[in-house]
Known about the structure:
Strand order of the largest sheet: 1-2
Protein name: Ammonium transporter
Transmembrane segments: 12-32, 44-67, 99-119, 131-152, 172-194, 206-226, 238-258, 270-287, 293-312, 324-342, 357-382
Largest sheet: 2 strands, antiparallel
Domain Ammonium transporter AmtB-like: 12-408
CATH architecture: Orthogonal Bundle
Keywords: Ammonia transport, Membrane, Transmembrane, Transmembrane helix, Transport
Structural class: mainly alpha
Number of domains: 1
Shape: globular
Pfam families: Ammonium_transp (PF00909)
Order of helices and strands: HHEEHHHHHHHHHHHHHEE
Amino acid sequence: MEPFTLDTGATAWLLVSASLVLLMTPALAFFYGGMVRARTVLNMMLMSFAALGVGAIVWTLLGYSIAFGDDIGGLLGNPLQFFGLHGEDAQSLLAGSGVPFLVAAGFQMTFAIITLALISGAIADRVRFGTWIAFSAVWIILCYAPMAHMVWGGGLLSADGPFAAIAEPIDFAGGTVVHINAGTAGLVLALIVGKRLGWGRDPMKPHSLPLVMLGAALLWFGWFGFNAGSAGTADGTAGLAWVNTTVATAAAMLGWMITEKIRDRRVTSLGAASGVVAGLVAITPAAAAVSPIGAIVLGAVAGAVCALAVGLKYRLGFDDSLDVVGVHLVGGLVGTVLIGLLGTDTGLFYGGGIRQLLVQILIAIAAMVFSAVVTAIIALVLRGIMGWRITEDEELAGIDVTRHAETAWDLVGGPASRRSPHAAPGHVGPAAGTGSVPHDHGRPAPLEPAAVESAPVDPASAEPASADPSPVAAQPATTGEPR
């Protein structure tokens, strides 16, 4: 083992990059939180925060060892080799760049966390929080960490695996490990958990597009740590990854918007934000493998393809609530496979032949199969032990108030608010016993006469103050096809 020499510049860059990637999980909470209906936003955001909490602990105890311990059969590392992140700096993944063991391990921790959080968007609005917590812990150990080992830890899908006899597989920052893995897991969970009540019939539009746009902006910012940080040091490769992340994402946003304009005759903020994420996903595996021109092409293709792919759930009949499949699985596949065409060293368009394209397809398929099988086993076992679905009454009233005894937007306030039969004292929620289902779609349900009578009084007019002074409250409910 060679002696370790600290490089303070590389270490500082990895600490900054790790912090940027960690920011992506709260950013995803905003992004997903804005996309759901108002009565489920807190639960949706909590699922991302729970992924952060569970992922950090599990990665420290076992995840890192399984991912980067000594190889066992090409599938996983020695689970106890680095238990509790106990290791020497000379054993660091980035020892050659002068980055200490804990810094490199912490950087990889943030990848595990965001991958887990991504899955939650496929099962929004309808699952038990406790089951999600249990799934999170088990999935990191049995699915994410082994996949990271197979791709980055010297396993079956790495340069040391059998596919390398064809060409060396390329996954710079997580096309297979993060996006194909999360997208496939999301699809499996959506199928096992089942559809939301009213899916395909009732409008289920995002309740806060500003939150979605804020989340997309923070994700784009954090993704520079994701991709440029994966260079392992502050060098030319990091610079190429930074530029490619920028231009591919810009091209994907434009590609999605153009597709919307042609198909729907309008451009939407939700489409622009989704295009941003699609571009970030697609460039992840290819960030250091393509030129800036190639990144623009890759991004534009990903934006258009993902814009079309998000509609497949209606044709095929699965409720992927927030388009984890259409954006992350499809975007991850596009980015991973197009390396075989656009890679400047071995891509088909650069005279490298078809071998790189073939191996990229093979590792993408292998990642999908592994993730699907492992996720299905975990999900089915948990369904039998704990159950996945909340009750129909809880889902109709809203998971925020029925499971968490909270509401995101106290637009009414005071005693005028109606209480859910499931809510804890001091917390308000949708009406009980009214015989109607509060489809708020981002707006508070109208007050009943008794509630209006007890609304707070404006001292200047001696009349009840408006529960919602905005002009939106007086407009008819929005309608339209669910996204």
